[in-house]
């Protein structure tokens, strides 16, 4: 095929990394310039969910899957109200998207939302570079934004680091809202929104939970005003070391021994609430094929991940914490990173990965059932 339906395909673009490495390609999506932390995701499908996951705020996502956009863009799979990635890097964009649910192309959606991307990049070489050197700051410049290399590198180096970035308040809802239970209502959960993905309250609603999604700035009184059977802390962008407010709120919930569940950022907050540290991984885990072992059952599950930070907790011993004994319940089999925490003396647990699996395999859906069991146990 020699022609393209993509309006920006002939506009030159460059991806500039903070260490001076430069990749040349063509504009994809909006033309202009953008900055963020360059990270790679190994998901073969699910780009719509990835791009609209608020945890990707201020990140330039590199898709390792070589063909992106094949199924276009639909009206159903968004995980939040908009695209959050600050830039998108692909090898070979679909020339003709095809799917019965698609209402437009990915390229059109990127243009509509003003998201600057780049195509025609050797994403294998780029991923190997990021794997060797680590995730780093980057910029995409297309059309008239392209300037002398030294100047572009300098501008990238002037950007803020992801380490130390506090981003959850800017992505979270400003107003509380309710996701009703599907079918008979059995439980009420207060969900603290730090960048929540839409599928998460949906997975709870499917289990008879009425979910009150609260702003990131919610107080203890706001949480208990909904008379919750359980409290949930969501995923979210940025460095968990900055999330002092949510850590204090979680400690107040733990003091009351209310059943508690956290996902991703929520797992890091539980780690901090228990007194563990967090640290930045060299290049993180992003994709939908990561092997995790549930050490409480020995079972291995294939799971969806998106995290650049992790909890620093001992793998092989039970830890004494201000809230009783705690242990690492889940571990990533690729690199032994902590993937879950569980308290042994009260009903609280969390995972670093994504049991809501949007997109991804449903192996970890049992974790929502575990949350339900904790709430049932508290009532009995
Ligand atoms: N998906 C998430 O909640 C990510 C948590 C945190 N921002 C990290 O990168 O590790």
UniProtKB/TrEMBL annotation:
Gene name tied to this protein: carA
Pathway annotation: Pyrimidine metabolism; UMP biosynthesis via de novo pathway; (S)-dihydroorotate from bicarbonate: step 1/3; Amino-acid biosynthesis; L-arginine biosynthesis; carbamoyl phosphate from bicarbonate: step 1/1
Record-listed L-glutamine binding positions: 55, 236, 238, 265, 268, 306, 308-309
Protein name listed in UniProt: Carbamoyl phosphate synthase small chain
Phylogenetic placement of the source organism: Bacteria, Bacillati, Actinomycetota, Actinomycetes, Kitasatosporales
A GO molecular-function descriptor: carbamoyl-phosphate synthase (glutamine-hydrolyzing) activity
Annotated organism of origin: Streptomyces thermocoprophilus
Family listed: Belongs to the CarA family.
Oligomeric and partner information: Composed of two chains; the small (or glutamine) chain promotes the hydrolysis of glutamine to ammonia, which is used by the large (or ammonia) chain to synthesize carbamoyl phosphate. Tetramer of heterodimers (alpha,beta)4.
Broad EC category: ligase
E.C. number(s) listed in UniProt: 6.3.5.5
